[in-house]
Design a protein that fits this description.
The structure is a homodimer. Chain A is mostly helical and about 80 residues long. Chain A has a single domain, classed as lambda repressor-like DNA-binding domains (434 Repressor (Amino-terminal Domain), Orthogonal Bundle), CATH 1.10.260. Chain A contains five helices and no strands. In chain A, helix 1 packs across helix 5. Chain A is globular, with a radius of gyration of 11 Å. The N and C termini of chain A lie close together (about 10 Å). Chains A and B meet through helix 1, helix 4 and helix 5 of A and helix 1, helix 4 and helix 5 of B.
């Protein structure tokens, strides 16, 4: 079975961490100052994120960018 | 002393890996199919890279995106 694209695995890692913090998508989008619709697309892996956007998300999630990608690497 | 921005630390990690492979900037840019001028800016941390660009670079360097960020995390 082929692996999901990295964008999708990163999205899943972001979602998992946001859920671990018990924040809704909407509350988290507000926290990091992005539009809720945009953030929904982020968690579906539908955005080709820039490094600065990934960093903003990681900061909001209180993790490093490296740790998000390490988590993404562990996903199928 | 404050830490360099993540974009700059990522650029340094990319450069270090490319040099470890003993490839010139020009040869590496050609390998991954990007313009040499653009790639030079990447290694100076002057581009706000997208995930797909970071992935293309990591593939060319034969490392994971996660490992590039882990290397970047170790830099000052």
């Amino acid at each position: 079975m082929s692996r999901a694209p990295l964008s999708v695995r990163l999205a899943k890692a972001i979602r998992a961490r946001r859920e671990a913090l018990e924040m809704s998508q909407e509350a988290f989008a507000d926290l990091i100052g992005v539009h809720r619709t945009y953030y929904g697309a982020v968690e579906r892996g539908k955005q080709n994120l820039t490094l600065s956007s990934i960093e903003r998300i990681a900061d909001g999630l209180e993790v490093s960018v490296a740790s998000l990608f390490v988590s993404a690497d562990k996903l199928p």
